[in-house]
Structures are given as C-alpha cells and as structure tokens.
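Hi R.,

Here are the chain sequences for the assembly we discussed:
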Amino acid sequence: MTKAEDIGRDSSLRSERQGRFERQRQEKLSRIKQLGIDPYGGRYDGAERACDIKSRYKDGDEGQRARCAGRIVLLRDIGKLIFITLRDWSGTMQVGLSKNLLGPEASGWPLAKLLELGDIIGAAGQLGKTKTGEITVWADSVSLLSKCLCQPPEKFHGLSDIDLRYRQRFVDLWANPEVMERFKNRSSIIATIREFLQARGFLEVETPMMQRKAGGAAAKPFVTYHKTLDLDLFLRIAPELFLKRLLVGGMEKVFEINRNFRNEGLSRQHNPEFTMLELYQAYADYNVMMELTEEIICLLVEKYCHGKQVRFGEETIDYTRPWRRARYAELLKEYSGCDIEDIEAVRMRAAGLGLDEGDMDDVVVTNEVFEATVEDNLVDPTFVIDYPAALCPLTRRKKDEPKYAERFELYIGKMELANAYTELNDPAEQYENFLVQLRGQEESMARMDEDFITALKYGMPPAGGLGIGIDRLVMVLTGATSIRDVVLFPLLKPTKD
RNA sequence: GGGAGUGUAGCUCAGUCGGUAGAGCAACGGCCUUUUAAGCCGUAGGUCUUGGGUUCGAGUCCCAACACUCUCACCA
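And here is the predicted structure of the full complex:
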C-alpha cells in the first residue's frame, strides 16, 4: 500500500467515526421531517438583536414581547422545560421553551424536544426574567431555521485546535466569540480609515490586480495567464505604479484598499495575499505622509484600544505622540554601532552577523545589518526616515543630501507597518533608477516599465505616497500576534485527502 | 530548507517507574417546569498519527515517515 492510500484509508476511518454522530443527527432530521416541518426554515422576519432585546427590557413590565434568531450554543433540558442559550452576532439570549407554552402540536413542544446544540432557530414570546434574574424569551412559538448536522465543538473550551480553527473558520467564528469580535473590529477599522480619508477629499479607486509588469515593490510575483490574449500576467505585488498614473491623470488625492500578492514564505507576519492601503496626495511630500499616518493610527488607537499603552504579545506599545522620528543612519549607529559612511565597519559587522557580505553591494550589506540589528528594537511607533537612495528607486532624493531618499518606514511592535515616499516624478531619473540592479538582492524594485516612464513624461505632480499594511495594523490594534488571526481564510497547506 | 515542540474518544485534556486506556463535555437510554459549562442514574464510544525497533511486555523508550505549532532562514 502506498503512503497516499494509507493516509486515505486513515481519513476514511476517521470520517466514519464522525459519521456516527452525523447519522444520529440525520435521524433527528428525519423525525423533524416526519412532523411536517422543513428543517431548513425560510424567511424569518422581525428578529431583534440579542443585545437590543436585553437593553430595552424593563423590569416589571409584563406586556413585553421579543423575537430572536440565532444558533443554539447551550441547551439545558429539564424535562418539561428547556433553557436554550441562543447566539446571534450581537451576543447571547436565553430562550425558555416550556411544554405548557408551546403546546402539543408538532411545531410546538415535539419540535422543541428534538432541538440540539448547533441548530439555528427563531423564537418569539413574552419577555421576562427567571428566578435567577436572567432576561429570557418565554417562547410561545419556535421555528427551526437550519438543522446542524455536524457535532459542534466542546461547549466550554470552544474549538482550540489551531489548524482546525483556520481550516473551519465557519466553526471558529461561532464557537469562539472573541474571534468574531476581532473580525468585526477589523471591518470597522477599515471603515474608519475610509471615512477618515474620504473626509479629507481622497477618492477611492481600484487598479489592476493582474499586471503585465509586477512593479512597485521588491517581491516574487504570482504568475497567471490570459487565454484569449495569449498573455502572461502577474498578480500585483503593489498598486503603486498605477496609482501614480492616476496622479498624472489629474486625480490629486487617491487611495486603494485591496489585496497584494507576494509569492513568498508564510510566517506570523506574512500571508501571501495581504491587504494594503496605498494613498497618494499631489503636491505633498513624505513629511505630510508622516503627519497623516500618525493621525490615522492615533485615531484608531483611541477608538479600538484602551489607553495609549497597548499590550502586544510580550511587549507594551506606547502610542503617545509625538512618535520618534529617527534617521536610518542614526538608528544604524545606535543599534549596530556602525557609522553608515564607514562601509568597512559595516561589512565587518555583517560578517560578524554571519552574512555573506562579499556578494553584496554596499547599500545591500548596510540594509542587511540594519534589519538584523535595528528592527527588533522598534517596539514603540518609530518613523525610520531618510533611507539610502540606492534602496529606493521610486523615491525622490533629498535636495541637499542626494545619497539619501525622502522615504520613511513606520515600525510598530517590531513590524514594518507603513512605507512612504516623496514620490520621484522626474522621468529621466526614474528611467536611470530602473536600470540599476543591486548585487545581493534576490528581488529588485527596479523593473523597467516603459509605459510608466511615458506617464511620467507627461508630468506627474510632486506628491507624497503612503502604504499601510492593514493586516499588521489590525494585529497591533487587536492584540493578535499572528496574521492568521486577522485574515479570515489564511493560506494553508492543503490536507492530503 | 535548519532547529525545537506537539500528535491519546467527535471536542477539551489526563495518563506516575515501561505492566495492556481515563476524565469532563458531546452522543444514546432514563428522571426532572427556573437552568446558567444545569444536575442525577445508566449505556456506548479507542489500530493511543503511521511504520519499524528494543523488551517477557510500549500510549510511555529508540529510529523513521506524516501532520500541525513555534522558531531560524527567506520575505528591500
């Protein structure tokens, strides 16, 4: 028997065991059908959110009614009375099902006795409190809206197998309320960013995900193919070069929040498809972008975190303004001890770090040393400014120091969260920069894009541009230390069967 | 790809010195009209990831494979 067959047999045994539970639930489904009830319900109007029902409840007023719908997450059957904890996406609601109230017809008490954990139901009835003070819908009607045929996870611990949680996010979301909460926050964070930008006159646009040239960043692209045009295409690694074309076209403030794709490894900070905010503002520069970045993120911290000191894994991030702005060279000196001008010292340090510096250009070595020594120290928000120009082919040089470029990266919690430039708008210089390939870099940001050069020749206004990694931003704002906890369906190795 | 860790019932987990498999939840059969992870009585559920090895005897020790997690590398 081959390994594949062996594994296949193993998984079929496994599913057979699970099938035992499913068969029992199938039997219940048949019994429900025999009662003349559609186990997959239908439209259910007028259900209120659990949290709204609870907050409008007034003690002592006996005329109150309520209607709710959700999944059964707890069930306590006491004979002629059943207490159910229903979860909708606002919270939980207790429903009391009693033999007297529901009556003997099929859709009443007999149905109630067949309900089980995981089923989705609707219930309506008088609102009241129990002996112990819990607000309860005393149901006089109950509807089965969807039968659950699979065994729900353990009711107290929820689903904790990490692999299963990512593979079956649909279970994770309802079994672990804090997961639902985090994704609701993610959505709300993105909505807040949109509102913020739109209020400042930015226009949201969508640019191609499939591109002839994968430009705007240094990363391995995914390759795809268009049949009718017989065309090889890349999934974009960044929207940058298209957004800049829009600047040429006269859109003065644009942004895009969408996916980028990079064909690289997975880690707690990397998912091959990730969400990026990129924005461009004509007539601005990287200083304007710094102000904007600090403003957006502080607004979000205020809204989604408690206080300015925020826990993140082992660290505490202090968002108190103003954030540190430190030159690249200054941080290199501070943490590696090397003077950026003293390339011999930098190379020695690189060798000491075990880097194969012989095959690398000076700036590449310097950057390797920077990454190895500096990044792990940048816990509080830090703008790293003025990068070596050679590392930034799309960035304008500093007027008085042409060896450095007007670029910053923002680090928070040891992660690169944002990257911004004063955009290069000189077509001749851009053309030259596209031609320079650095030794020691696996991927280059310098990929010749003639059409983009043509666009620049028409004249692109001077501009500031900014990219913010949304997934990582959501991580630091929600305390998730793995990107998989803020991406609904992270990329996983497929299972063997 | 390197290193470390984990893999036991559907789920969450115990399993001592190597002596032949345990709990809670879920399920099934009972009892129960005010429960809060309801409770009580009973039943069933296992190729201990897989394959080798050591041993009289392996869930336990050794080797290998597979899967997952963490970590390093890669990711400017």
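Chain A is about 35% helix and 25% strand. The two ends of chain A are 16 Å apart (CA to CA).

Let me know if anything looks off.

Best,
T.
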